[in-house]
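Continuing the series of single-chain predictions for the mutant panel. This is the parent chain; the variants come on the following pages.
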Amino acid sequence: LQASQAALREANRTLEHKVAERTERLEAAHRELLRRNRELQAINAVAGAVNQSLDLDEILALALERTLEAVGAETGVVWLAGAGREGLALRAHRGLPPGLAEAEALAPPTDPTSLNGTPVRVEQLAGGWAGAGFRAAALVSLRSKGNPVGLLCLLGTDAERFAPADRSLLE
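Parent structure:
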């Protein structure tokens, strides 16, 4: 009888362990499904913004707004290569401190060519951007037909602001 009870207890422990493992796998799959759903919603929101207008500045402002909403950030800047001019030109921004967007030569926090084809890079900031209160940037290379045409920069006041899920979404 004692042997049967011990075997029953061991079988119960094994069963509880298997249920716990299965529950964890299901919860992980559910979290991944929610993450992918948020990504699809963000892509749909940006696509909807792009299709609302033919004016490039309006498209950039709407796409920036939707992107910020998707990752829960408050500050972002878009620079594009200027037609017939060197370097990048500020084309859209949201959440910058007063006066910063009007700065004559508001430069990206990093040299866009340093991305070297990397779609998204997150880095901690120093210099002028840090002086404005920003500690982290998610830098997204903007490309058209495979060629770099600009830079999207999302800014955060926390050095650890952009999580791997944010990076995945931005790619």
